[in-house]
Amino acid sequence: MKTHSSILIKLLVALSLSLLCASQDFDFFYFVQQWPGSYCDTKQSCCYPTTGKPAADFGIHGLWPNYNNGNYPSNCDSGNPFNQKISDLMSSLQKNWPTLACPSGDGNKFWSHEWEKHGTCSESELDQHDYFEASLKLKEKANLLQVLKNAGIKPDDEFYELDSIEEAIKDAIGYTPGIECNVDGSRNSQLYQIYLCVDTSASEFIECPMLPKGRCASRVQFPKF
Ligand code: 5GP
Ligand code: 5GP
């Protein structure tokens, strides 16, 4: 009898552990894209990747697991480091997820940072390859630069109403984006990052449970790049 119940307890513990590991441990993703012109102004300077100046397009910053209350997990599994087994995605990553930090790099350091800080916290849903592939698909699906251009909002150093930027994205994608701004050397409020919320399988945009604080003026500059 005693051995039976101890086996039962062990089985129950194993079962609950496996359920705990298999269930996703975050509520949604922020999919964050950065405008390179503003990143370069924010840091006063930036460094183009060793692979060359990126296109004048939004670039991926990251796909960040988040909780509904605004908190977020980070650095969830040091046993699952960035392993670069994404060679089939490499040219697309270079184009769509370029690094602008100094000193110049080929992108691996940025991707590794994003995987280790954020990606490991959604590994129950997406392995490394899935994580990068899903991010690339989301960028294509959002097509932010084209959406803004269609609404007459272009990276031409002009100022645009924050509301009109939000509205253009909401009309095209169906959900309100989070807009984050920076202040450049001349104290202009600039369009820096756009946050879209995504379901836990990283395939569909959703309404944001919580919008990030944006620090934008009512009119913001969309700098050239
Ligand atoms: P910052 O303080 O510049 O807004 O953010 C620094 C870093 O913290 C971001 O690049 C990102 O890695 C992380 N971070 C900031 N806000 C959030 C958030 O709302 N959710 C998640 N998941 N990460 C965030
Ligand atoms: P976060 O924790 O803010 O997601 O990650 C930002 C980190 O990635 C910083 O250490 C930053 O230096 C590095 N990084 C490399 N390239 C870029 C880039 O193009 N944009 C941003 N925002 N961070 C970059």
From TrEMBL:
Keywords assigned by UniProt, alphabetized: Disulfide bond, Endonuclease, Hydrolase, Lyase, Nuclease, Signal
GO BP annotation list: RNA catabolic process
Residues making up the signal peptide according to the UniProt record: 1-23
Keyword Signal: yes
Entry GO MF terms: hydrolase activity; ribonuclease T2 activity; RNA binding
Gene3D superfamilies on file: Ribonuclease T2-like
Highest taxon, organism lineage: Eukaryota
Residues forming the catalytic site: 61, 114, 118
Family per record: Belongs to the RNase T2 family.
Stated role: May remobilize phosphate, particularly when cells senesce or when phosphate becomes limiting.
Protein name per the record: Uncharacterized protein
